[in-house]
C-alpha cells in the first residue's frame, strides 16, 4: 500500500529532532526515570544503545558520550537497519563519531545474515533489515512499513550522508565495515548482555532487541531496564509523526510503526520499561533564543557537529539548556574533526588541462554503483582522451546501492584527477513506483530483489569495505545551495547534468551512452526530450538476458518465480520498455555473453602480473575481495556478475573486435513479477537492436589489465593513506 499525504505541499520538512536528543535530556534531567539511572554500589551504569542513526540519534549518542563515565558507560552501539538510515552508511558514521570522541573501545554491531524459517525457527544472527512479519530466510524482502520513510532528500539519503555534513566534518578512523568480519547486531547484544547487568536504550525500531529476546530468553535476567523512545499515548488528539501517512494513521509514531510486532515482543517481555513518547518530548519546546545562543557558542567539535546537523534538519524544537550545556562542556570532548586532525590539511580539486588536444567521442556513463560499475569507471577513465571524452556520470539509485553511495564516485574521480566530471543523481524510485502525491515515498516492488545484507546493499554502499581506502574528495553529496572555495554545494540531478552536457556539445557532435544499471535515467531523458534523437549517437546497454532454452536461466536469484529475467531489466522493466520502444541506436550486451568473460581468477591473474598503478592495485584488491568471498560463502556466489559488467566499456571503447547480430528485441513490463524484465526475440513487436554475440575472451582480460596498468592518465593521489601522510607533514 502506498503512503498518502493529505493536501498538497511545496516543501515537506522532516521533523526529526524530538525522539532521542530531547528524550535523553527529558528522562535524564526531568523524569523520575532519570533519577534512577545512576550507578549502583559505585559501579557505572552499563548502557547498550540500539539506534537507527537518525539525526536525533546522533545527538543522543554524543550526549551519552559526554556524561560522567564513572556513572554512565556506553559499552555498545547496535544499528537498527530497517529504519531511517541504511546499514553500510550508518555503521561507518558511528565508527567515525566514536573515533572523534576517542571511544574506539565501544563495540559496534550491525546486520547479520540469519533468517526466520516458515516454522518460526529463528536462525543465528538475523540482521534486522526487515520487520519481523516480513523476515524470511534471506535479507531480501518487502518494505511493508519502511515505505513510510522517505528514501531521497528529506529521508534516508540525507540521513545516510547527514545532509553532507558527515563527510566534510567527521574524521575517519581505522575501524570500518568489513564483509563477514563486521560484528553483527545480535553478536554484540549477546556479548554485552551476557557480561552482566545492563540498561538498554532503544531509539529506533525494536527489531534487533525483539529478535534477541526471542532467541535468548535465558539472558533476560541481565537486562535491568529498557528505555524506549517512541509512541504517542497521552492524548485523544492525533499524536503520531507519520507525516507521509498521517491521513490513514494519525496516531502512530515511526519507531513503533517501523516494526509493530517487534515492539509488541519487547513490551510483553516482562522487563521493566520506561517509554518516552512524542507527547512527552513535545512538552519541552525550545526558544529561538536557545538556538541563537547555541549558534554563537560551539566550543567543542561535538557541539559543532550537533549544531550543523540541527541546522540542516531545520528543526530544533525539543532540546533545552541542559543539552546545550552538556554538549559544550570540555570533559570527554572530541579530539578533532576531519580537517583539524591534520596540521597541513589543504582542500584541492584536480582537473586536467586538455590544452589543444582533440578529444574523443563524448560519453555519458549511467551507473547504479555496483562494484562492477566502479571497475568500469576506472576503465573509462584510462581510455585515451582522444578516444573517449567522459562528459558526465548519471547515477541510478534504483539498483545495487543506495543514493548516498554517490560519494564513492566523487572519491574515485578525485583519485583519478577528474574533479571536472559532473555527477548527477537520478530518480530514487523505479518508473511508476513513487507515490503520486508525495514522490519521496513509494513502493519497493522491484528493488526488494536486492539483498540488504552480505552480497547486497551493505556491501555495495561500502564498496565491500574498501571505499574508505580511496582518497577523500572535497566534492560530496550535500543539500546546500552555496559555493564554498569553488566547490559546488548542492547535488545536481541526473536530468540537470544531462541538459548541461547537451548544451556544451560541439556542433555536429552526438552523445554516446553506456548504461550499467536499470534504465530509469535513460527512460526519463527520452520522455523529457522528445524528437531530439539527433543528439544521440549510440547507446550501449549492459543487461538483459535472451534465453536459449529452459536451462538458460536469468540472474534474479531472489525472485524464484522469475527464472529468466536479468537484474538491470527487472529493477525497472517499465523504463526498459520505454528505451527499447524508442528510436535509439542500441547495442545490447546481454547476460549470456557477459557470463563468458566473467572469470574472476583469470582477470585477477592478468591484473596481478604487474599492478604498477594505484588504480590497478585498487581494482585487484576489489576483485580479490569478490573472489575470496565467493569462494568462502554461499551468499556471495553471484558476485562474479560484477566483473562481467566491464564488458560494455571495452565494446564502447572499440578495444575488442566483437561479433554482432541484429535482432528484434522486446522487454516484458506488464506488472507481473514472474515475467517482468524478461528480454526476448519477438519478430512481430520487437525493436531491431545490435546484440553482442561473441568476443575474443583472452583479449578481454589482457585489455582490462593493460589499460589499468598503463602509466598514462593514472591516479594523481593514490589513497586516503597517501592523503593522510601529505596532510601530516609540512609541504616542501
From TrEMBL:
GO molecular function: hydrolase activity, hydrolyzing N-glycosyl compounds
Keyword Membrane: yes
Keyword Ubl conjugation found: no
Cited InterPro entries: Inosine/uridine_hydrolase_dom, Ribo_hydro-like
Annotated keywords: Membrane, Transmembrane, Transmembrane helix
Entry similarity comment: Belongs to the IUNH family.
PANTHER family: INOSINE-URIDINE PREFERRING NUCLEOSIDE HYDROLASE FAMILY PROTEIN (PTHR46692), NUCLEOSIDE HYDROLASE 3-RELATED (PTHR46692:SF1)
Protein name: Inosine/uridine-preferring nucleoside hydrolase domain-containing protein
Organism, as annotated: Quercus rubra (Northern red oak)
Lineage: Eukaryota, Viridiplantae, Streptophyta, Embryophyta, Tracheophyta
Amino acid at each position: 500500500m502506498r503512503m498518502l499525504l493529505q493536501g498538497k505541499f511545496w516543501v515537506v520538512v522532516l521533523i526529526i529532532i524530538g525522539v532521542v536528543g530531547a528524550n535523553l535530556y527529558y528522562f535524564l534531567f526531568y523524569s523520575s526515570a532519570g533519577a534512577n539511572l545512576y550507578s549502583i554500589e559505585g559501579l557505572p551504569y552499563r548502557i547498550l544503545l540500539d539506534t537507527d542513526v537518525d539525526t536525533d540519534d546522533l545527538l543522543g549518542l554524543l550526549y551519552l558520550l559526554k556524561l560522567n563515565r564513572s556513572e554512565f558507560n556506553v559499552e555498545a552501539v547496535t544499528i537498527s537497519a530497517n529504519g531511517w538510515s541504511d546499514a553500510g552508511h550508518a555503521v561507518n558514521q558511528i565508527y567515525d563519531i566514536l573515533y572523534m570522541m576517542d571511544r574506539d573501545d565501544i563495540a559496534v554491531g550491525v546486520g547479520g545474515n540469519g533468517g526466520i524459517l516458515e516454522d518460526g525457527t529463528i536462525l543465528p544472527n538475523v540482521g534486522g533489515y526487515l520487520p519481523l512479519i516480513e523476515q524470511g530466510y534471506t535479507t531480501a524482502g518487502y518494505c511493508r512499513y519502511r515505505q513510510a520513510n522517505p528514501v531521497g532528500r528529506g529521508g534516508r539519503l540525507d540521513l545516510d550522508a547527514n545532509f553532507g555534513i558527515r563527510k566534510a566534518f567527521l574524521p575517519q578512523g581505522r575501524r570500518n565495515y568489513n564483509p563477514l568480519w563486521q560484528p553483527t547486531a545480535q553478536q554484540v547484544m549477546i556479548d554485552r548482555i551476557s557480561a552482566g547487568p545492563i540498561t538498554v536504550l532503544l531509539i529506533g525500531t525494536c527489531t534487533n532487541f525483539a529478535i534477541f529476546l526471542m532467541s535468548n530468553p535465558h539472558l533476560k535476567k541481565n537486562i535491568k531496564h529498557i528505555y524506549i523512545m517512541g509512541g504517542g499515548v497521552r492524548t485523544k488528539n492525533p499524536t503520531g509523526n507519520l507525516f507521509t501517512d498521517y491521513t490513514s494513521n494519525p496516531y502512530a509514531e515511526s519507531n513503533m510503526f517501523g516494526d509493530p510486532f517487534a515492539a509488541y515482543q519487547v513490551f510483553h517481555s516482562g522487563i521493566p520499561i520506561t517509554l518516552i513518547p512524542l507527547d512527552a518530548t513535545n512538552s519541552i519546546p525550545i526558544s529561538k533564543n536557545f538556538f541563537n545562543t547555541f549558534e554563537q557558542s560551539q566550543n567543542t567539535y561535538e557541539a559543532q557537529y550537533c549544531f550543523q546537523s540541527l541546522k540542516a534538519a531545520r528543526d530544533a524544537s525539543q532540546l533545552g539548556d541542559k543539552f546545550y550545556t552538556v554538549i559544550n562542556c570540555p570533559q570527554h570532548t572530541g579530539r578533532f574533526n576531519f580537517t583539524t586532525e591534520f596540521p597541513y590539511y589543504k582542500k584541492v580539486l584536480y582537473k586536467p588541462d586538455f590544452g589543444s588536444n582533440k578529444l574523443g567521442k563524448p560519453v555519458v556513463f549511467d551507473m547504479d554503483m555496483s562494484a562492477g560499475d566502479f571497475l568500469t569507471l576506472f576503465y573509462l577513465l584510462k581510455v585515451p582522451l582522444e578516444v573517449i571524452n567522459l562528459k558526465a556520470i548519471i547515477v541510478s539509485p534504483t539498483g545495487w546501492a543506495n543514493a548516498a553511495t554517490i560519494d564513492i564516485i566523487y572519491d574515485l574521480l578525485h583519485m583519478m584527477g577528474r574533479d571536472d566530471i559532473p555527477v548527477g543523481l537520478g530518480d530514487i524510485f523505479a518508473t511508476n513506483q513513487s507515490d503520486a502525491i508525495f514522490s519521496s515515498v513509494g513502493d519497493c516492488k522491484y528493488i526488494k530483489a536486492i539483498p540488504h545484507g552480505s552480497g547486497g546493499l551493505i556491501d555495495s554502499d561500502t564498496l565491500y569495505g574498501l571505499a574508505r581506502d580511496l582518497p577523500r574528495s572535497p566534492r560530496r553529496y550535500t543539500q546546500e545551495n552555496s559555493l564554498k572555495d569553488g566547490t559546488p554545494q548542492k547535488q545536481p540531478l541526473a536530468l540537470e547534468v544531462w541538459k548541461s552536457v547537451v548544451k556544451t556539445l560541439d556542433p555536429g557532435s552526438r552523445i554516446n551512452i553506456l548504461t550499467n544499471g536499470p534504465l530509469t535515467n535513460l527512460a526519463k531523458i527520452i520522455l523529457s526530450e522528445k524528437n531530439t534523437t539527433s543528439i544521440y549517437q549510440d547507446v550501449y546497454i549492459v543487461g538483459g538476458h535472451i534465453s536459449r532454452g529452459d536451462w538458460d536461466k536469468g540472474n534474479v536469484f531472489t525472485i524464484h518465480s522469475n527464472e529468466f529475467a536479468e537484474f538491470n531489466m527487472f529493477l525497472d522493466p517499465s523504463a526498459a520498455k520505454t528505451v527499447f520502444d524508442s528510436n535509439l541506436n542500441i547495442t545490447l550486451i546481454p547476460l549470456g555473453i557477459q557470463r563468458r568473460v566473467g572469470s574472476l581468477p583469470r582477470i585477477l591473474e592478468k591484473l596481478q602480473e604487474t599492478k604498477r598503478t594505484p588504480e590497478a592495485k585498487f581494482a585487484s584488491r576489489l576483485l580479490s575481495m569478490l573472489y575470496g568471498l565467493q569462494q568462502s560463502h554461499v551468499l556471495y556466489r553471484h558476485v562474479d556478475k560484477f566483473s562481467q559488467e566491464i564488458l560494455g566499456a571495452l565494446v564502447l571503447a572499440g578495444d575488442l573486435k566483437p561479433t554482432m547480430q541484429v535482432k528484434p528485441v522486446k522487454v516484458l513490463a506488464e506488472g507481473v513479477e514472474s515475467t517482468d524484465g524478461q528480454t526476448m526475440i519477438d519478430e512481430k513487436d520487437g525493436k531491431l537492436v545490435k546484440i553482442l554475440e561473441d568476443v575474443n575472451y583472452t583479449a578481454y582480460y589482457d585489455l582490462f589489465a593493460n589499460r589499468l596498468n598503463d602509466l598514462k592518465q593514472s591516479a594523481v593521489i593514490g589513497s586516503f593513506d597517501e592523503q593522510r601522510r601529505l596532510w601530516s607533514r609540512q609541504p616542501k
